[in-house]
Specification:
This protein folds into 3 domains: 69 residues; 81 residues; 116 residues, no CATH class. The protein has 8 helices and 10 strands. Strands 1-2-3-4-5 form a 5-stranded antiparallel beta sheet, covered by helices on one side. Strands 6, 7, 8, 9 and 10 form a 5-stranded antiparallel beta sheet that branches. Helix 1 packs across helix 3.
Length: 284
């Protein structure tokens, strides 16, 4: 503690005691003037010691501000160094070139948000904070390991486009029945996701539908798979999606964010359907 801080502490103590003595003197004045006189004398003495408190407080404030600024700069440098090391590892191991500044760093189709409240944490999102994927303690090894795990899950090296389109078409047909729509009509993209996810379940779940047998298939999995489609044609049908309106992007049940390749750029979609083709290959 600085000399000014020690002095301020003494003056504040004298101020509190002086005010208490003065208050007691006022109360004792009518019944016992002599007692009030002693208390008043004590109050004057203590309050005299407290004079100049404001000036000392200003000096302590300047010292505290200087300390805070230096400490903040030091911590920011340490955090920046840590994130730089994480970024270099991501580029080396995953091939993504991280961009941005703390607290938000972008790497490939992912956003990494660093927070430093009780302990340093890194939250991983798909796209510009569209789908929360994971959260780990913000340490070099932890972040890279979790990001690799997430990426391998969402973006496996093998992707059978026609098999995916087949499952997508089957999910579309089920969604049409559930919603009472006709073939070729649009369905909410989240309704399509629900049916697609159900179609990914194993026989064990269908025979005994309990939690431990359920295979998770998230919005992020669906979005990343859609982002990998190069051909959108299945059995002379072309898969299409409607761009969501601004109001539809406020509620997750009304839209799905699909990245453009391995970047955080992307599009919000609200509906999807399979458009029939005519005999000449054109859209009906």
């Amino acid at each position: 503690m600085t000399e000014e801080a020690v002095l301020l502490k003494k003056k504040l103590k004298a101020l509190v005691a002086g005010l208490k003595a003065f208050e007691d003197a006022l109360k004792a004045a009518e019944k016992s003037p002599s007692k009030a006189l002693l208390l008043g004398s004590k109050a004057v003495q203590l309050l005299s010691c407290a004079t100049g408190t404001e000036q000392v407080a200003e000096k302590v404030l300047l010292t505290a501000k200087d300390f805070h600024e230096k400490l903040e700069n030091q911590i920011q440098r340490e955090r920046g160094k840590m994130v730089t090391e994480i970024a270099l590892q991501i580029k080396e191991d995953l091939g993504f070139t991280p961009e941005g500044n703390l607290p938000l760093i972008f790497a490939g189709p992912y956003a990494l948000e660093f927070t430093f409240v009780k302990k340093p944490l890194c939250t991983i999102y798909l796209g510009p904070k569209k789908e929360k994927l994971a959260q780990v303690e913000a340490q070099k090894g932890n972040v890279l390991t979790k990001l690799k795990e997430v990426h391998e899950s969402l973006y496996p090296s093998s992707f059978d486009e026609q098999a995916f389109l087949k499952s997508l078409f089957e999910a579309y047909k089920v969604a049409l029945v559930r919603l009472g729509k006709r073939d070729g009509e649009k369905v909410p993209v989240t309704a399509l996701l629900s049916e697609f996810a159900f179609g990914q379940q194993k026989k064990s779940f269908l025979c005994d539908p309990k939690k431990e047998l359920f295979t998770t298939y998230s919005r992020a999995h669906f979005a990343m798979a859609l982002s990998r489609l190069k051909s959108r044609t299945y059995k002379e049908r072309e898969f299409r999606m409607t761009v969501a309106t601004m109001s539809q992007t406020k509620d997750p049940k009304d839209f799905l964010f699909v990245p453009k390749g391995l970047s955080t750029d992307g599009t919000h979609f609200s509906e999807a359907w399979f458009e029939p083709k005519d005999d000449k290959g054109g859209i009906l």
